[in-house]
Amino acid sequence: MERFNSGARVGESMTRRWVSERRSEHYYRKAKRENYRSRASYKLMQMDDRFHLFRPGMRVLELGAAPGGWSQVAVERVGSKGSIVGVDLQGIKPMEGATFIRGDITDPETMDRLEGLLGGLADVVISDMSPNISGNYHMDHACSVELCQFARQAARRMLRPGGTMVMKVFMGDMMGQLRSEMEASFSSVKSHSPAASRKSSSETYLVAKGYRKVGA
After folding, report:
1. Is 93 a catalytic residue?
2. How is 20-55 classified by DSSP, letter by letter?
3. Which residue has the higher pLDDT, 16 or 105?
4. Is residue 189 part of a domain?
């Protein structure tokens, strides 16, 4: 989910280079062969294998769901008795086992729609949201942390006690404060960079388990 726009000329140049690099990259080719919508699918697989995020029958809320690579993995791992509800600013091609809406999670109406579609509290909240890349490291980090705060608001409203949250964040000097805030709401918070992440990327994931409402 991309929310912020700045540095258009720099951003376009970086985007062209990123597209060129990813086409020759292992996980990009693997996703094409195995019919996943995104190379990011393998990041979620690897995190689930390590941290045991999903079980059959779980209810999952996904933030920044486009193009649906994480959704495919979640659908596979929660099975036919589970449910996935995803949201993104972009439209998402329909997928069996998942329900998608187009919306902005900073909009109260979007939050209301998500809550209605979930039909109850989520067992897991996952967020792969990312800001538009400006090329300014500190700005991109700050925008990423802001998106994480919106994701936390969604979890406070829609994650069950004892539930799990996974969210992407760009590393930087605000990471310590963000992690401390997460630790006040979860019994365990770990930073993890799956093997499928690009070595050049500043992204990492916070994997938080054992959600507790008090102090959220």
Report:
1. no
2. HHHHTSHHHHHHHHTT-S-TTHHHHHHHHHHH----
3. 105
4. yes
